UniProtKB/TrEMBL annotation:
Gene3D superfamilies per UniProt: Winged helix-like DNA-binding domain superfamily/Winged helix DNA-binding domain (1.10.10.10)
Domain of life: Bacteria
Species: Chromobacterium aquaticum
Organism ancestry: Bacteria, Pseudomonadati, Pseudomonadota, Betaproteobacteria, Neisseriales
Pfam families reported for this sequence: MarR
UniProt entry keywords in alphabetical sequence: DNA-binding, Transcription, Transcription regulation
Domain HTH marR-type: 42-181
Keyword DNA-binding: yes
Protein name per the record: MarR family winged helix-turn-helix transcriptional regulator
Length: 186
């Protein structure tokens, strides 16, 4: 069928923004390539979530660039800070536990931990209870970086919802929590 007569199953509601011109070709591709078992409305919405995730990460990383760290590495440091403050309830901060929590591979976490250690933000120490194993700890430099970066990080997080009013935020929060919970249990 010619592209001009083929209407995708999903056209998200848009205002005067650039979403519709960006997504319509993809929705056409979805309509032509998805199997009969694919709900095109949900797949289109999933595509928007993927794009949003990419854009969110890019925006936050741009704000963190001045601190020479990415959101993912900052999140790892935050976990160590939470443990120090007694607010981490996830057990030992092993590479596997961090990977599960962040939704990345263990090898990715190992690379991030090595990077953070090489920059003096984390330090390996022998465990008191088992001298054969090592544990990572936040260094003074790591704590200082968090003190410098976190205020801007939280402002960047706030800006991500700037287009929404309070009632929209109240509706969005449980929906995002539901999606997050589902992704963590799959």
């Amino acid at each position: 069928m010619p592209a001009d007569t083929d209407t995708p199953a999903v056209l998200p509601e848009t205002s005067a923004n650039s979403l519709e011109p960006a997504i319509v070709p993809h929705l056409h591709l979805l309509a032509h390539s998805a199997g009969a078992d694919v709900d095109q409305n949900r797949a289109g919405l999933g595509l928007l979530l993927l794009w949003l995730g990419d854009d969110v990460l890019s925006a936050v990383n741009a704000d963190l660039r001045a601190h020479e760290i990415t959101e993912t590495k900052l999140s790892v440091l935050m976990l160590f800070s939470l443990r120090e403050m007694g607010w981490w309830q996830g057990g030992a901060l092993t590479p596997s536990a961090i990977a599960d929590y962040l939704g990345v591979t263990r090898s990715t976490v190992t690379g991030q931990l090595d990077w953070l250690e090489r920059r003096g933000l984390l330090q390996r120490q022998l465990r008191d209870e088992d001298r054969r194993s090592l544990e990572l700890y936040l260094t003074e430099a790591g704590s200082a970086l968090l003190q410098q970066a976190l205020p801007g990080f939280w402002r960047a997080c706030q800006r991500l919802t700037a287009a929404l009013d309070d009632s929209e935020c109240a509706v969005l929060r449980p929906l995002l929590a539901k999606l997050w919970t589902r992704l963590k249990t799959d």
